[in-house]
Prior knowledge:
Blueprint: H1 3-22, H2 25-42, H3 50-57, H4 64-91, H5 108-115, H6 128-132, H7 135-151, H8 154-178
Helix pairs in contact: 1-2, 2-4, 7-8
Amino acid sequence: MGRAHxxxxxxxxxxxxxxxxxxxxxxxxxAGVFIAAGFQTYVLESWAVxxxxxxxxxxxxxxxxxxxxHVTIAGATSLxxxxxxxxxxxxxxxxxxxxxxxxxxxxxxxxxxxxxxLGRFGFSTADGDAYRSFTPLALLIGAAxxxxxxxGALWAQLALPIAAALSALGISIGLALGAGGTA
Length: 183
């Protein structure tokens, strides 16, 4: 994960925390701007935070119409800023722009919502099966890790990063051996 993506995540978390503490439209819009900036870098996965942020903001102490208006305005701002690049690229004729990588049809929509979008969440795309197989396991591991943290079980908290490191090492070795030792 690159530095830019880390900055977008930290910026989103910072602005979202301020928005929740202060029940502020301005801070919520800023969180949406950071999400849109993350979208420009890492596409649809940056939007994965919006449902949780909207749900948390809808639990703040203010009138329902105000909460709904704030979430709608911030979400719309984030959406417009996110789609700007896609629309500009889609308006340029395919013959006059570089080929859009990771697509079958040279479409920015396919790249964003297919390969780098829903494909990352396990939906159909050229490599969707690779992601689909990990989704239930990731949710189970995340729930187990959260339970271990709540109960203070240190061994369980250490087991997750150790298992992840061993899995990554095993996959890397397997890929290297499968490629005849050239990977």
